[in-house]
Amino acid sequence: MESGKEAAANAGASARARVEKARAAVQGQVDKAAAYTSGHREAAEVNWEAAEVKKQQRVRAAEEEKQRALRDNAKDHRGGAGSGGGTDKSPPTEGAHGDAEE
Asked: Which residue intervals are annotated with compositional bias (Low complexity) in the record (predicted)?
């Protein structure tokens, strides 16, 4: 059951990354097209390069977010299955020690 939840969460993370990458590509095309409306060739080239860099940064950020989500999903899956129902949480243990010391 947990692996199904992890797979669904991973699919969601991948879908979000694809959407963000597509948005970055479209916005990059818009920025590149807008770069040539300035009328100055040198300015257009600089703007075009800036648009490409911005697009690549957005694509990289989307991929990093996806990888972070995949790691978190795997960590949640391992932590949820191996915790034994959460009996190893700190607050109840500290309370037991505090009662024993008094």
From this structure: 1-16
Total domains, the chain: 1
Q: What are phi and psi of 89, to 5 degrees?
A: -75, 145
Q: Which structural domain range is residue 33 located in?
A: 2-101
Instruction: Give the tens place of pLDDT for each residue, 3-48.
Output: 888 888 889 999 999 999 999 999 988 888 887 776 777 878 888 8
The whole-angstrom distance between residue 93's C-alpha and the CA centroid of its chain comes to 34
Mean pLDDT of the chain, nearest integer: 77
The span from the CA of 22 to the CA of 37, in Å, is: 23
**Which residues touch 101 (CB under 8 Å, ≥6 apart)?**
none
